[in-house]
């Protein structure tokens, strides 16, 4: 599968502080990619670098084999971006936003934009400042999709929405992905929601990528091990350990290997996996590799 997004040694520094560093990614075309990490992890910095809203202090970005949007109008034309606060000109009518989009984007699809706005039941003459948060988010998504991008970047687009508005936003998004074959890079804190819609995962913490890969492959490579709190296994495949007086629970990357005698293994969920890598990031260790924990 060809790569939609490639970064090599990508980094952004603000004076002496690196917000993102040594970021190497190769993300597949046609995937819905979850970007997960705590506040201040570097997620928004990464998205802004990819979108050309900032210039990197180190490294490079390419989209579909082209230079980053900051360097290439051709790459910019293939990119749609919806920020966390889904900004729209509040005094503009919805029709004004569509006119602006048509004026600025050579591949603009006016029929698509109007159809999506009509499906939402939003009058074209309505001022965007009078729309609900969910409606503004849907209008911002319609504007991004009408650009006919190949890569759609969403930076916490549903963070401020109520549960129903979040569900409706994601339903529209996934229907569009199915119809258009888009590549989507979606940043969110809600791992449970991401698990329903995403097939690729990037975990960022402390300004560095901690984990990246196909979701099913990552879940298949990790197990939760339960055993005695003494004689704990160790090695680069041990990601995180929760220990009590009598028992220990270990998230480990063991592939198909059998755990040690006396230890039970079970499959891991996506949220457990993400949390294990975020906790691991607090204590720098060597990069994980396959750990053979056989007898």
From TrEMBL:
First and last residue of the signal peptide: none
Positions of the ABC transporter domain: 5-231
InterPro entries in the cross-refs: AAA+_ATPase (IPR003593), ABC_transporter-like_ATP-bd (IPR003439), ABC_Transporter_VariousFunc (IPR051782), P-loop_NTPase (IPR027417)
Entry keywords, A to Z: ATP-binding, Nucleotide-binding, Transport
UniProt GO MF annotations: ATP binding; ATP hydrolysis activity
The keyword Transmembrane helix belongs to this UniProt entry's keyword annotation: no
Organism superkingdom: Bacteria
Entry coiled-coil feature ranges: none
Pfam families, per database record: ABC_tran
Protein name per the record: ABC-2 type transport system ATP-binding protein
